[in-house]
Please model this.
Amino acid sequence: MARKLAFINYKGGVGKTSLIVNVAACLARMGHRVLLCDFDTQSNASIWLLKLDRWNPINATGEGAVFSIFEPGRHRVCDLIVRDVVLDKAGGHPLPGLDLLPTSFNLVDLESEYAGDPRRPAYVIFQEQLSEVESDYDFILFDCPPNILRASQCGVFSANEIYVPANPDALSLIGFTLLIEKLGRFQQLSASFRRSSMGPAAQVYGVIFNAIKTGVDIEVPKMRMQLRLNQFKAAKRTAKEARILDSFVRDAMVVRRAVALGLPVNLLGQEAAGDNVVRDYERVAEELIRNPPLPA
Ligand SMILES: Nc1ncnc2c1ncn2[C@@H]1O[C@H](COP(=O)(O)OP(=O)(O)O)[C@@H](O)[C@H]1O
Ligand SMILES: [Mg+2]
Model:
């Protein structure tokens, strides 16, 4: 069964998308079959991996974007997945095994204009369709916006594990706290729609520090995050295994450059050669594979 992980924090700009795209790319390079589902209305992961020339037509028509499973409802998740999404200049597939469920800006209409059927919330429609393709994957990753509104709910409802990207600052801590509150509320509201085949409702398993500047000591912010995590764990509001991952991602120019080039950092070749940030993402991917710790 695929492991299903959502990356979410109530704080924007902490590096959720950079982390999920690069970790997905590392997992694919290790030989895992990975589906990245973009549920951020800003479409950053889709624009990054498809580049504008392939994303613009999707955005202009809505054809091929995830919102089309809700409205007009003619498409299904299995029809929308872009297989081996990364293309090189020659049109080859340098990263087989990394697939994308793309989104476009019209996903924002899910929040207000989409009426739907209250007996079948959007997240149920999505989860049912996702289950048709789950056996094709080892990892299904959900990039979520900094909220748990309807688009994000699709990822959170389908996922079993949540990872919280964070910067070493007070705002990331506030974002984490807000996430725990809203997550609890959503899990209550959606509980009656869960089926046992979906596995347990998503809980926070880990916090991942991102964009750590060289020479900056993160011991104090890490300790504050650890204290907060301990409180939530004691109150059973996270998984009992939840912890701050040992691996973190440093701040590196090449991460921003990768977006402009439409490639994950591990495919930048010469440009990223010798850059330790590639290794950082690999370490996070390796730790996620081991996490949650297997029972002895
Ligand atoms: N490790 C990093 N080093 C340098 N810049 C980063 C790093 N991670 C993210 N960024 C940059 O920070 C900004 C926000 O990152 P992004 O992944 O879009 O965050 P979010 O998805 O949480 O909004 C982007 O410009 C991105 O390129
Ligand atoms: Mg993002």
About this structure: Residues 98 and 168 are 30 Å apart (CA to CA). Residues 16-17, 40, 44 surround magnesium ion (ligand 2) (CB under 6 Å). The longest strand covers residues 203-209. Residues 170-190 form the longest helix (21 residues).
